[in-house]
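Bug: C-alpha cell stream looks shifted between consecutive jobs. Job 1:
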Amino acid sequence: MEQEQNRAPETPPAGAPAELPFGEPLLICPGLYRVRVPLPHNPLQALNSYIVLGDETTTIIDVGFNHPACEKALDKALESLGRTWDTVEIVLTHSHPDHTGNLDRIYRDGMRVYANLHSFKEVENLMQMQANVFGPLLRKAATPQQSGLVFRKGKHRLHISAELLPLTCKPDLIYLHEGDVLRAGSFSFEVIETPGHDPWHICLYEPDRKLMIIGDHVLERITPSVSSWFPAYNALEEFLESLGKMYSYDVDLVLPAHGTPYTGLRERVMFLIAHHGERLQELYDLVAAGHDDIVSISSHAKWRYDGRSTRSSSRWARRWPTSCTSCAKARSSKPSAATSTVSSCRSAAAAIEGSITCASI
C-alpha cells in the first residue's frame, strides 16, 4: 500500500485525458498490454495488470483484489485478446493482496504462479509475528471511542482494509530470484529483487525493449509505504538500497502497478532518495535537539499530511520536481552519486534508530 492510501481519490481537472476503461487491454508494444483492474473502496482506484501474449501462453503480471470486479476485468481482457484461462500463467511482483488476492478467484489447477516467494506461508508467518508485536500496543493504547477500532468478543481489533487479509488459495509457487530470466512470449525479463515496500518485491527488466515492469517500487506521483514493526529489520534501508539499484538500468519506459506509464526513471529515483534524505535529516535534527520519543518527534516535525492537496489541478498535472539540487546533480553524474546519497540516508536512519525511545507508544 502507498503512503497516500488514506487520501480521498483524486478528481482529474477538466481537460485531463480520460483513463482507460477497466478490463480494456491497451497495447504498449507488440505482445504486451496494460489492463486497468479496479480496486473497489480503495483510494488507489486501480491496479495495472500487464499481459504478455505468447504462442501458447498468456502471462498476467499482478491480478488485483479478491473481488468480483477484479475477476470481471481480467475476464474481459482475456476475451478481448482471444485468450482463455487455460493458457494463463501468473507472475506476482510482490505479496500484497491488491496484487495477489484475485488468485482466490482465477486460479485453476495446474496454473503456474511465479513470485519471489517459496510459499505464501512466509507472508502468513510475518503477519502473525507483526500481530504479536502490534496487538499489545493496540490493547494498551486503544479505547472503544477511537475511530477505526472495533471490539469483538471483548478484544481490540483494528478495522483494516481487505488489503491486509491473507489468501485462502495458496497455490504452489515457482521461485524467482535475482538474476533469473523470465521468458514470456517474445520477452525475456531479468528479475531484480527490490525489497523495501515488501520483503518479496521484484521488478522485471526487458533489456532489448528498455522497459521495466516495476510493481510498486517506483511510482510516478506517490511513494510506496515502507514500514516494519521490528526494530531489527530496517525496511527503509532496504528500500533505499533497492532504489539505488535502479540507477544502473537503461530504461526508456517504466510500467508501474499504479498510475500511468512514465519515463525518467533515474530522475524519479534520485528525487525519492533526496526526499527520504531530507525527511531523515529533519528527524535526526529533532532527535539531536532532545525530542527522543515518537510523540514529541511527530508533533514537532515540519511536514504535515494535508488531504486537500491531492485535489488540486496543479498536483494532478505535476509529475515530480525537476529543479531540486539533488536531482540536477544526479542527472549528470555517474551511478556512484546514487550510492553516495543512499549511504547518507542509511547513516541518518541508523543514528535516529539508536536515539529514539518507544516509551510513549
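Job 2, same session, no restart:
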Amino acid sequence: MYFTNTPALNSMEAIMKKLPYGTQKGGGRFRRLYQYTKKDCDCRLCLYYRKKNGCILTLCPVLDIRLGCGAATIDDAVKAVFKDAQNTAFQKRLSQIYHRKDDATMIFQNNRHKQIFETERLSMRKPGKKTLAVLYLLTADHTLWIKTKHLFTPNGKVDLKSVRLGNVSTDSYALWKAVKELQTGEKQISLYELADNEIVSDNDFRLIVQAASNTRRKRNRISVRETPPAVNPRQSLPKLQQHRR
C-alpha cells in the first residue's frame, strides 16, 4: 500500500520503506570454499615447522584439513593424538598395530558397519564429534547396536540408564565401557586395560583408539595421563568380564 499517487513518488516511498543497511536481493556470485590439496598441507610450509626438529606442537592444529585432502592418514591421526600417552605398554601396542605392512588400515570393520553408520549419521541433526564417535563404536558391534539403537535421545546421546546389556561378550563390553566414557567423560577404561591384549582384542583396540582420536583432535575426552595402578592390570580382567546387569 502506497500513500503517494504517482509512479515516481511510489518508487521513492518504496525506497524509504526499506530497512537500513538491508541486503539487496539478486546479484552477486556464489563462491565455493577453498579446497585444500596435499601440496597446500605440506608440513614444511607450516609456521610451527622447524627444519631440524620438525613440528614443535604436540598435536597438529590443521589435522582435520590434512585428513580431508589426503595429506594425512588415520594412522597419522591416531599416533599424533596419543603421542603424549604416558604408558609404555600402550605405546608399544599402538606401534605394533599401526606399523603392520601386511594389514590395511581399518576405519570401518566391513561394509555393513559403514552402511549402518552413514545411514544413522544422516538422520541426525548436526551431530558433534563425540556423538559420531559413540555411534561409530555402537554400530561396530551387532549386539550393542540391537540393544541401543532405539535409545538415542533427540540430542544425539544414548540413554545409558535404560540400556540393559544382559549376557554379552567381553569384546562387546569393552566397547560399551568406551562408549560410556566418551559420552559422560567419567573414567571407565584405562590405558593399562587397553594395553593388555587379554582384556581388549586387537580389533576392539583399533575401534576404540580411532573413535577416541576423532573426539580428541579438539579436546581430550579420554585421559592419556594416568597414575600406575596399585595392582597388576591383568587383575582387572574380571572387572570387564562381570558385565551382567
